[in-house]
Specification:
This protein is mostly helical. It is built from six helices and no strands.
Length: 252
């Protein structure tokens, strides 16, 4: 579906924006805690930097490769769901850790001094917000894609190894009795079966008349009631001369 490709690009682009913001906030928080000295190192800052680096390395590459190539490994639905689910967990962990520090450590930013500590307090709340927003963007898209995969798997369409732009999510259910996992037996018999090899069919059934003018196998008697058609060129009776054959050489 075309709209699903648009949703995919929008979700990945928004997650990349959240990763850029988390990278800046986490790096500044690490530097601020070092300069202030009296503050502990917050776990969300290092986790936010790591999450942002992973997201910025992989998500823009996934978008670019899918636009330039068709059927790339990084664009396969099963790979995309696995990696985006993992990144979503990292975004959620970053946002949850930052929200915990904002609620239980900073509490109110106006009571802190100097100004750099107040800035760090507001940045913690911002990191919590963008971490959760990045998680929502990735998991909402992944959830929609997973629902479509399950629906079409029940209809016999398995598109786990294709890309979003190649998968035909608009296809309906296949006709009843259709074999979706390989060629049908009727087609296989028509191509390689009995009709394609009549001599093999005659060899499997020695009592039957060989079809399509194949000569009978040596030592195989014809079926009862079936007599060979005389051709006029059989062996002459004793004492008779064989009739001449046009174009035959005279015997000496």
């Amino acid at each position: 579906m075309f709209w699903l490709s648009i949703v995919r690009i929008a979700a990945l682009a928004f997650a990349s924006l959240c990763a850029i913001i988390l990278l800046g906030l986490g790096a500044h928080a690490l530097a601020a805690t070092t300069n202030l000295g009296g503050l502990p190192t917050f776990a969300w800052s290092g986790l936010g930097v790591a999450t942002a680096v992973l997201a910025l390395i992989t998500i823009p590459a996934m978008i670019a490769i899918d636009l330039m190539r068709t059927g790339a490994f990084s664009s396969m639905i099963v790979v995309e769901l696995s990696w985006l689910g993992f990144l979503g967990v990292l975004f959620l962990a970053t946002g949850g850790s930052a929200a915990d520090r904002a609620a239980n450590f900073w509490v109110s930013c106006n009571t802190w001094s100097p100004q750099e500590a107040q800035n760090l307090c507001t940045e913690t709340s911002a990191a919590a917000a963008f971490g959760i927003l990045g998680w929502l963007a990735l998991w909402v898209y992944s959830g929609i894609l997973l629902v479509f995969l399950i629906i079409h798997a029940t209809r016999g369409h398995y598109v786990w190894r294709s890309t979003v732009k190649e998968a035909n999510f608009g296809a309906g259910a296949p006709p009843a009795g259709t074999n979706t996992t390989g060629p049908s037996m009727t087609a296989a018999q028509g191509e390689y079966g009995i009709e394609a090899k009549p001599f093999e069919a005659a060899a499997l059934n020695p009592g039957a008349q060989p079809p399509y003018g194949y000569p009978p196998s040596p030592g195989v008697s014809p079926s009862p009631g079936v007599s060979p058609t005389p051709t006029g060129y059989g062996q002459p009776a004793y004492g008779q001369t064989a009739p001449g054959h046009p174009g035959a050489y005279p015997q000496v």
